[in-house]
Design goal:
By secondary structure, the chain is an all-alpha fold. 93% of the residues lie in helices and 0% in strands.
């Protein structure tokens, strides 16, 4: 039952979070507009605007906006992840290069030490 509920919630959410649904809700809300205006009562008109039109239409529009923002954030996360992986690869290469250079420096140091020992042996005492 839980899987069905989640599936149904996802279907409803993805349907309501469209501009087409916002247009449909606006049309539905506009059906009652003439009666609200005919009443001439400012409370009825304000109630129609706030409770009927804004709640129905803004629901879908806000959901569409959230979907757009979410996609934008997801894209930035993906770009950051890709850039981070590239930086990580560069760091690994730099570490490998540094290890090779260190090995070369150690070899040069050994050779220099050997030369110093040879020169010291040849010096008069």
């Amino acid at each position: 039952m839980k899987r069905f509920n989640l599936w149904l919630a996802e279907k409803i959410t993805s349907s309501v979070a469209t501009m087409w649904c916002a247009y449909l809700f606006a049309a539905i809300a506009l059906i009652s507009l003439p009666k609200a205006l005919q009443s001439g009562d400012s409370i009825v008109i304000v109630s129609w605007v706030a409770q009927t039109f804004l709640q129905l239409v803004l629901l879908s529009i806000i959901m569409v906006g959230q979907k757009v923002q979410s996609a934008s954030v997801e894209q930035k996360i993906d770009e950051t992840h890709t850039a981070s992986l590239a930086e990580f690869e560069l760091a690994k290469e730099a570490r490998t290069d540094a290890a090779l250079e260190l090995a070369e420096l150690k070899e040069i140091s050994r050779e220099m030490q050997a030369l110093i020992i040879e020169v010291e042996k040849k010096l008069p005492r």
